[in-house]
Design goal:
The chain contains 3 helices and 6 strands. It folds into 2 domains: about 1-35; about 50-140, Roll (Nuclear Transport Factor 2, Chain: A). The longest helix has 29 residues, at about 1-30. With about 140 residues, the protein is an alpha+beta fold.
């Protein structure tokens, strides 16, 4: 009799343990292990080159540079900056979170921007094309 009571208690104990393991597994499965990546909508951008450039910026793709002349002029909040140095630090780290409006035949982009260590704020990007269709100037800044 002692043996059968022990067997019954052991079976009940193992049953509780198994149930507990099932519950833990169910919780692990239902809990997401990674955040969903959000894709920013670029459909409002009507200039195809600007759209492609912004897509490259969003993904940190070095093809970003191919849309510009060798040494484009650039301003950041009205201050002249070196385009290549600026994007050497920003590309792949700074992105638009939203495109709120597009003006100037699709070359002026306004939206919410995540600027790395500087935080998130509304900005504008104004692309200027030369006669060959490359961007020769980019003005960026906070949209007030």
């Amino acid at each position: 009799m002692k043996y059968s009571n022990f067997a019954i208690l052991l079976a009940i104990g193992l049953s509780y343990t198994a149930c507990g393991q099932n519950t833990i597994k169910e919780k692990q499965i239902s809990t997401p292990t990674s955040k969903k990546q959000q894709t920013m909508d670029v459909s409002k951008i009507t200039d195809s080159q600007v759209k492609q450039a912004i897509e490259a910026l969003q993904t940190g793709d070095k093809s970003w540079y191919s849309f510009f002349i060798e040494n484009p002029a650039m301003t950041d909040d009205g201050n002249k900056v070196d385009f290549k140095s600026f994007f050497a630090n920003a590309l792949g780290k700074e992105v638009f979170l939203s495109i709120d409006r597009v003006e100037n035949d699709g070359k002026d982009i306004y939206g919410n921007f995540k600027a790395g260590q500087w935080g998130t704020f509304p900005v504008f990007f104004r692309f200027h094309k030369n006669t060959e269709g490359k961007f020769d100037r980019l003005d960026i800044g906070q949209d007030k």
